[in-house]
Structures are given as C-alpha cells and as structure tokens.
Amino acid sequence: MALTASDVKKIARLARLAVVEQDIPAYARNLSNIMGLVEQMNAVDTREATPMAHPLELPARLRPDQITETIQRELFQSIAPRVEAGLYLVPKVIE
Amino acid sequence: MHTKTITELSRALKQREFSSVELTRAYLQRIERHNPALNAYITVTAERALEQARAADARLAKNEGGALTGVPIAQKDIFCTKGVKTSCGSRMLDNFIAPYDATTVERFNAAGAVMLGKTNMDEFAMGSSNETSFYGPVKNPWDPAAVPGGSSGGSAAAIAARLAPAATGTDTGGSIRQPAALCNLTGLKPTYGRVSRYGMIAFASSLDQGGPMARTAADCALLMQVMAGFDARDSTSVDRPVPDYAAALNDSIKGLKIGLPREYFGAGLDGKVAQAIDAAVKEYEKLGAVVKEISLPNTPLAVPVYYVIAPAECSSNLSRFDGVRYGYRCKDPVDLLDLYERSRGEGFGAEVKRRIMIGTYVLSAGYYDAYYLKAQKLRRLISDDFKRAFEQVDVIMGPTAPTVAFNLGEKTDDPVTMYLSDIYTIAVNLAGLPAISLPAGFVGKRPLGLQVIGNYFDEPRLLNAVHQYQKVTDWHRRAPEGFE
Q1: Would you call A82 an interface residue with chain B, using a CB distance cutoff of 8 Å?
Q2: H/E stretch holding B186
Q3: Taking Cα atoms as reference points, which of B258, B188, B183, B252 lies closest to residue B217?
Q4: B6-256+393-477 domain in CATH 3.90.1300.10?
Q5: Cys staple from B127: which of B84, B150, B280, B436, with CB 3.0 to 4.6 Å?
Q6: Residue A54 has pLDDT above 90, yes or no
Q7: What whole-number distance in Å separates Cα of residue B422 and Cα of residue B429?
Q8: Which of these is catalytic: B10, B87, B129, B175?
Q9: Closest CA to B219 of B470, B480, B479, B26
Q10: Rounded Cα gap, residues B24 and B41, in angstroms
C-alpha cells in the first residue's frame, strides 16, 4: 500500500497535525512501509473469527450517580497556556 | 549500599544499619555523578526525596511501615506526580506540572517509598530504543554504544547503573520486558487490569499496563505487592483479590510444565541468543521442570496487528493534546485550526506523528473493516493460540528479544525494522497476559533476557519460576563495568 504526498497531507489534516512540506516525502515512504507490514494481515482468513476489542471480557462497571470530584479550576488553569477570568483563551472562533 | 537489592535494603533499614536519608543521599550522589553520561533521568527530585526519606526514618524509628518504607525508587516519567514535571518524554508536556498523583505513585507514597526522580522514556512510550525521547537518547550502562531498549529505557538504565534499586515501567508492546532484557534486569508486565492506570498517560488503552522493574524476581514481588489492586478510578481495573506475591517464591518448581513455542526459535533469532536461551531452559530442567514443544501459529501476525491497534488507539488518546488546556502551545496562532495543527505538529516528535497518522488512516471512512476490524479478528486468533497452549503447559518460555541491544542510531531510519525488534513481546499485550523477562546471559558485553509468559493472573507462578532460577544462577548479580 503506497501512500502519496497528497494522502499524507490529507491524513495530517484529519489528525490536526501540521507537517513541514520538506518532511512529506519521508512520511510518505515510512507510512507506506508500515502499511506494507500491516498488509501481511491479509494472508489469513478471518471470516469465522469474532473481533476482540479488549483482552478481558469484563462488563462495563457502573457506579452510583454521586458527585466524587471537586472543582479545582484554579489548580488546573495554573498550567494552561492562556487563561483569563477563569476561561481558557483561544483565537477568535466567531467573527 | 547501592549494591543491595530492595529485599536487602528493606532488611537493612529495619535493622538500622543505615537510615533512609543516608541511603537516599548515596543514590542522589550516584545520580549526580553518572546521570549526565547516561541520561537515564529527566527530572531528579532531590529535595522531595530527602523529605520523604526523613518521613520514612521517622516511621522506621517507631517500628512502623512496610517492606518499601525508606526504599528509594524511580518513576517512569509517564506516571503523573503532583507538583513535579511529568513530560512523557515529549516536548508537548515539557511544561506540564501534573496537578495530581497517579494511583501507582500514590500507592508508593503511602508505602513510604522514596521517589528519586522521573526516568527518561521514548516519547509517549512509542519506541523500542529510547531514541524518540525529546530529552535525547539514554545510553546502555553495559555498553555506551548500545541502546538500553524502550520505551522504559531510562528506568532500565537507572537500575542497571545502580542509580536506583528499582523503578516503574509501562508495557504496551514490550516496553518493560525488552529494556529489562537489554539491561540485565528482571521486569514484569502484569496481567492487563492488574495495576491501575489512573494517572498513567495513555498510549493504547487496550494494551497498556504498568509494572515493576528491578534486579530480581523477589524485588519485583515486593513492588507488585504495592502496585497491584483494584482502583475505582480506572475503568479497566480488575476487582479481584491481590495474592501475596512473595509467598510462593520458594516453592519447588518440580513438575512445572514449560512450553517452548517453535515460532519463537525460528529465523530472525540470533544464534548466540538462541544458545543462551537453550542453556537457561536446561537449567530449568535440572530444577525439575518438564519441557515440551508447543506452537503459537499466529505469532508472525502479532506485529502487523499491533501496528493497526496501537496506532488506532493512540490517535484517539493523543487527540487530547490540543494546545488549549495544558501542554505545548505554538506561537501566535492565526486561528483555532492553526492553533491545533501547529501545537501538535511542533509538540510531537516524528515517531508519534507517524503513529497518529497510521491510526487516523486505518480508522478513516472506508478503511475501518479492512484494517481495524481485521486486526481485532486476528487479535482473537492470537489470543486463542495462548488459550490452547495453556491447556497443555503452565508457562511459556522463549527469548525476550531476537538480539542483544543494537547500536544507537542503527534502526532510527527505518521504523519497520525497529518494530520487528518487539516480535516476541507484542502478542502477550494483545492477549492481555502477564510475562516477565529475566537475565539469562550475555553476547559479548551485552546482556539478553529469557521471557516467561503465564496464564491470566498467574504472576505468583512467574515470580516463583524466576526466583528459583535466580537461586542457582548469577546473571542477575552482575553489574556493568564502572557501575559496580
């Protein structure tokens, strides 16, 4: 499975990753090699196999609907890149 | 003091041969002297360590505390530590001061252990050589030209160089066992769900598991006693009683049924590593174990399957790093998309970006069945291989890695070659089984490991099997030149 430069750009956009133009050929080559490795999966017939999402077949655990966490906004915002008046700041989204 | 195992340190502290403060100072001095060359620690928490040591001494003076009270350890920098930088080996979290403790850290604190610092690692635990760390590669104390393995390479190098008597690691595809093998240590990857992952930065959630790294199985048993147990804050934590891990260490292994999977001894395995593994198996036969050849036919599929499942889960887990609430933010973003894309593009290294892109690709519209669903079906077949094997044998043995440590820089240009160095460890994570790597010899200066795989929650049996071997061999006692 060979991935082209435009595939890489499309995937990077979906993943919200800025990739420097000059690095794109190396990504295309490396990702193609990795997908080549992945293609080895096709050698085996899996029509009868049940997908395994998780190593232990455990039911999801439920907990009582009670408040267990306390608000620690100041602590959490003390490590934020930009905050103002208790709000996280990002570039303007709506004109 | 640095030559002692934690089992010995624990006894010496209780008998007041030395204090925890003296012990901690001795380790901090060794770190100061040797860490610049090895790069095993990202952060050294000297003041905090001495504070914890003083508190431990106070407990010991009152004859209080447990086996680890006053014993220094290192934490892999993937575990959140309140008030201390928790970088996960990434520029993305270079400025991240964790606002809370991981459950594992909390449990070690409660046990009175002393944290010396946070160890280096491959970025977000993605790597097998510790070369993807934002903080630079770690050197293998056995040979400075060699990698220490990864991703828990800093933990492994720190213990091997006697800069910590023990450390935590995490294992998603071999990240405890492979560096343990490459640095002559004992490292246990517990059953999935046995050790809480709360506060352990997520890479691939259906595979990740924290565990102990030390010089001996007896030490790993002491560490497991602290680490294992149910945690309501981790939705994958298993609510099941924790056994006494040290209780069975001295049991005889006469009659232990060992399976040798023929797929683990085929092409790709270095001849000298194979010889050493054969010799270790013979030693087990002398101890009364019974050896039988078995087959895990889907072994060759483990690496391809892993490189669908792990990247898919990583692309989802790492989407939280967006430059908004914590971590790295790019300079002067023009709009929100630019903020996301450049913060992530600049904050993540090349290997992490490759895996996020592979994960994004295999999960994208139209490809899900061909890749992700296919991988999940193969995962079942791999897991079923082990189920069948454990109907015939008690444990499975083989090499931990196909070769001894490779050279720094040797595999950095070709990710696929690097991935194949985890060929014997990855299937265990896909199945969720426990496995341990133990010192079993050398090729030249470089150590190698024997891997013992157990059935679900059979950690006591693994520790017992390793302890019995360590009673009759001395590989695990050897120290690298210059660090004795």
Answers
A1: yes
A2: strand B186-189
A3: B188
A4: yes
A5: B150
A6: no
A7: 11
A8: B175
A9: B470
A10: 15
Please compute Rg for chain A using Cα positions: 23
Q: What's the mean pLDDT in B8-15?
A: 97
Burial bucket for residue B17 (CB in 10 Å: 0-12, 13-18, 19+): middle
How far away is chain A from the Cα of B173, in angstroms, using its nearest Cα?
Answer: 14
Kindly report the nearest CA distance between residue A37 and chain B, in angstroms. Answer: 6
pLDDT of residue B332: 96
- Distance CA(B73)–CA(B20), nearest Å, equals 12
Residue B323's closest chain A neighbor by CA? A81
Residue of B158 and A54 predicted with greater confidence? B158
Task: Supply φ then ψ for residue B213, to 5 degrees.
Answer: -130, 130
Residue with tokens 């609430």: B325
Output the CA torsion sign for B150, B152, B156, B157. Answer: positive
The Cα B97–Cα B214 span in angstroms is: 27
Distance between CA atoms of residues A51 and B379, nearest Å: 7
Cα(B437)–Cα(B177) distance, integer angstroms? 5
B395 - beta bridge partners? Answer: B258, B454
Task: Say which DSSP state B154 is in.
Answer: H
- Per-residue pLDDT band at A61 (split at 50, 70, 90): confident
Whole-number percent of chain B with pLDDT over 90:
99
- Cα separation values, A85 from A77, A91, B97, B313, B326, Å: 10, 16, 21, 35, 17
Residue A31 reports pLDDT greater than 80: yes
Chain A CA closest to residue B329: A81
Look at strands B395-399 and B446-454 and give their pairing.
antiparallel
Give residues 158 to 177 of B whose Cβ lies within 8 Å of A. Answer: none
CA-nearest of B104, B118, B100 to B68 is B104
How far apart are alpha carbons B222 and B103 in whole angstroms? 17
Q: What are phi and psi of B472, to 5 degrees?
A: -110, 0
CA B317 remoteness from chain centre: 20
Domain residue ranges in chain B = 6-256+393-477, 300-375
Please name the residues in contact with B436: beta carbons below 8 A apart, sequence gap of 6 or more.
B177, B186, B187, B188, B189, B217, B220, B451, B452, B454, B462, B463, B466
Distances (CA, A) of B169 to B62, B166, B214, B234: 32, 10, 10, 18
Report the C-alpha gap between B197 and B236 in whole angstroms.
8
Which H or E element spans position B309? helix B302-317
Per-position b or e across B208-244, b if 16+ CB within 10 A of its CB: bbbbbbbbbbbbbbbbbbbbbbebeebebbbeeeebe
**Calpha distance A67→B454 (Å, rounded):** 39
In angstroms, the separation between the Cα of residue B194 and the nearest Cα of chain A is 11
Tokens of B19: 């204090």
Q: What amino acid occupies position B202?
A: A
Which of B319, B342, B353, B362 to mutate to test binding with chain A, by most A CBs within 10 Å of its CB? B353
Hey, what amino acid is at B482? G
